[in-house]
Structures are given as structure tokens and as C-alpha cells.
Amino acid sequence: MLSGIIRESISKADVKALRKNGYLIANIYGKGRENIHCAFKRNDFIREVRNKTDLIFKIQVGSKEYPVVIQEYQKDPITNDIIHVDLMLAQEGIEAKYSVKVKIVGTAKGLKNKGVLMLSKKRIKVKAAPENLPKNYEIDVTNLDVGDVILIRDLPQNNGVKIVERNDVAIVGVIKSR
Q1: Cα–Cα distance for residue pair 98/52, rounded to 1 Å
Q2: Sheet holding 137-140, edge to edge
Q3: CA–CA distances in Å: residue 110 to residues 84, 115, 145
Q4: Whether the Cβ atoms of residue 99 and residue 132 lie closer than 8 Å to each other
Q5: 27 and 86 Cβ atoms separated by less than 8 Å
Q6: 80 and 134: one domain?
Q7: Distance between CA atoms of residues 147 and 116, nearest Å
Q8: Domain boundary residue among 90, 123, 152?
Q9: Helix, strand or coil, per DSSP, at residue 105
């Protein structure tokens, strides 16, 4: 489990000192909760995020554990290093917006007919409580031929999960190659 430290001061000088020592600055927030200013070792955070299997993962800050979701992160424009991350608490029973991954399964038959598989959306925005959240949206593309497309409205409806994207947005399709 990823563990971090609580930042006592949020001044610019202290943030700079933490970054110099290899820390990633983070804020944890949730509905009806006070924000927690914290920091994690940058390499530990990246390793943890790469190895996580679910959207929600647990972290430890100080002596408390929190289930969180990465809401947003900022990168340095020159070095491309992550310099700040916003983590949202996944509070049971409280609906929030999440971005769920799309997972492609199978080989489209349109690829044999000189088609190219185009994945338009890698994530789908949903509104749900954490306990109802799907791990990912698995889409079978084996029956897609050239010109076929799978839209948001073609996804299965899960109980307690509301998709907040437009229905006519394409997720994946097979287009004719040039």
C-alpha cells in the first residue's frame, strides 16, 4: 500500500523543498470532508499507479487509510514529470463522477478486409457510487466489419451506474484504410 506524509505547510518554499527531495505533492478531497494536503515519494506513487488493477486504490496518509481515485494530475511542461496530483475519496454510498477504462476484446473481422480498428474513447465518464462502479467496459469487436461502429448507447446498462456521455459518441469502429 502506498503511504505518504501530511504537509503541515502549503507554502511555496515548502512545496519546492518537498519536490527537491523526490516527493509528489497531492491533495485529497471528498464530499463533506476537509481537504488533506499530503505528499508521496514520486517513484513509489508511479509504481503503485502502474500496478493497480482497479480504479479505486488504497493509500495511507499519517495513520489513516483512504480509498481514493486519481481525479487529475499536472505535469511539468519541460521534463514531463508529474508534479501534482488530485485524489478524490471514494466514499461508500456517495455518487461521484469517474472515468472507467474501455477494454477491447477479440479481433475485428473488418481487419481482414483492409480495415483499421480505431479506438475513439479510452475512458467513459460515469456517475456512480464506488460499490457499483464497473472495473472496466469490455467491448467485443469480433463482429465489426469496415464501416461498423460501437456507440455509447450500445453499452450494457449497469444498476446504479449512469453514463454521462452523449449517446451518439463512438467508442470503437473499423474504418477503411487508405
Answers
A1: 16
A2: 137-140, 96-105, 123-128, 161-163
A3: 42, 5, 4
A4: no
A5: yes
A6: no
A7: 10
A8: 90
A9: strand
Q: Which of 126, 127, 106, 147 is nearest to 170 (CA)?
A: 147
Cell of 95: 455518487
Domain match, 101 and 86 both: no
Rounded CA separation 127/67 (Å): 17
Q: Domain with 161 in it: what CATH number?
A: 2.170.120.20
77: left (phi over 0), alpha (psi -120 to 50) or beta: alpha
pLDDT tens by residue, 79-101: 988 889 999 999 888 899 988 88
> Which pTM was predicted?
0.77
Query: Residue 105 carries which side chain, given as an amino acid letter?
Result: V
CATH number of residue 46's parent domain: 2.40.240.10
pLDDT < 70: residue spans in the chain: none
Domain enclosing residue 134, as ranges: 97-176
pLDDT of residue 133: 87
